[in-house]
Amino acid sequence: MSPTKSVILVTGGTGLVGKAIEWVIHNESDKKYGKREGEEWIFLSSKEGDLTDPAQTKAIFEKYKPTHVIHLAAKVGGLFGNMAANLDYFRDNLLINDHILHNSKEFGVKKVVSCLSTCIFPDKTTYPIDETMVHNGPPHDSNYGYSHSKRMVDVMNRAYHDQFGCNFTSVIPTNVFGPHDNFHLVNSHVIPGLIHKCYLAQQNGTPFVMAGTGRPLRQFIYSRDLAKLFIWTLREYQEITPLILSVPEEEEVSIKQVGDSIVKAMGFTGDYSFDTTKADGQYKKTASNKKLMALNPDFKFTPFDVALTETVQWFKENVDHIRK
Ligand code: NDP
After folding, report:
1. Which of 93, 124, 171, 257 has CA 20 to 30 A from 306's CA?
2. DSSP H helices in 117-250
């Protein structure tokens, strides 16, 4: 990015990832990731405009005149929400992404980094997954609407570059967790849902029971680590093709390790067990972070237990007024 004034617009600025970027911008002293002189950061919420609406999206670009965009806003939901409304997830996200990229081109935005997700990869694949495999086969059936809309961002990025020379790219994070997550007991991702469940077990003196065997493996990235990598991508990543943002393959953790860490961080001393009559999800979905580490070899991920303890602490301090 140039040393002259930059206006960086973060769509979805009130969500899990947006709040983490805001935190890093205000708290990180290392200028590789923290705020630099001449930068103005704008964190958007949906209250400022519905990005599925073309006029409201254009008005946001007219108001802020961004030079750079980190595009996070999306209709995001759990398994059942997606299964019940694949068309809504497809259309809303297609509209949001089209409006953001179209206006970015019209207003001469120098760079856009959009957010994809590892769930967009083909359902039937070899492991580890890497960036070249995005379009290799159909995504999982449960959320094909969401997945296809996200895949189209990569198609649009390529076409905007080929036709107009735009510098629009994307990143692919693995499972994210951290402060400001959605801690709903059902409609949430695994870590925030389990934190809430363990908290209630502690409050009510009831057992903490995890569904399944606890054996499946996942790569979790702390939202504040992801935030640093988003900022680094905006400043340094030079390709149009996507970049996976993930911890290394060897830092995959089992769901049992997640449960153990939550119990420890919560200080839960009650009965803790696994209901093995409940189905496990896919055993593993390992993604490769080799491309990232070749480009940013010094990056240090926060140890899982430290990140989880910070998240549990944040949950306990904010439990009365958070998404749950
Ligand atoms: P959240 O659900 O926490 O936040 C979503 C954000 O999008 C909110 O700021 C919300 O605004 C905004 N938003 C949603 N719909 C609209 C709309 N129609 N107009 C304007 N703003 C809208 O999401 P995350 O932070 O978890 O996700 C950010 C990105 O990361 C998404 O693109 C998601 O697909 C991707 N991702 C997330 C992963 C995860 O594990 N969480 C994993 C991989 C990718 P408001 O708060 O005002 O409603």
Report:
1. 171
2. 144-164, 190-204, 223-236
Indicate if ligand 1 lies below 6 Å from the C-beta of 171. Answer: no
Evaluate whether 89 touches 77 at the Cβ level (below 8 Å): yes
Distance of CA 232 to the CA centre of its chain: 15
Active site residue 89: no
Q: How far apart are CA 245 and CA 229, in angstroms?
A: 7
Q: 116 by DSSP, 3-state: which?
A: coil
Tokens of 199: 């908290």
How many residues are listed for the chain in this entry?
A: 324
Tokens coding 136:
């290799």
- CA 213 → CA 192, 268, 281, distances in Å? 19, 20, 10
Q: Which helix (H) or strand (E) holds 119?
A: none
Over residues 79-119, the pLDDT tens digits come to 788 888 999 999 999 999 999 999 999 999 999 999 999 99
Q: What is the number of helices (H) and of strands (E) in the chain?
A: 10, 12
DSSP structure class, residue 48:
G
Angle between helices 190-204 and 255-266 in degrees, nearest 10: 40
- Pseudo-torsion of CA 175, 179, 182, 185, nearest 10°? 90
Could you tell which of 10, 14, 17 is best to mutate to test the pocket of ligand 1, judged by most ligand atoms within 8 Å of the CB? 17
Judged by DSSP in three states, 71 sits in: strand
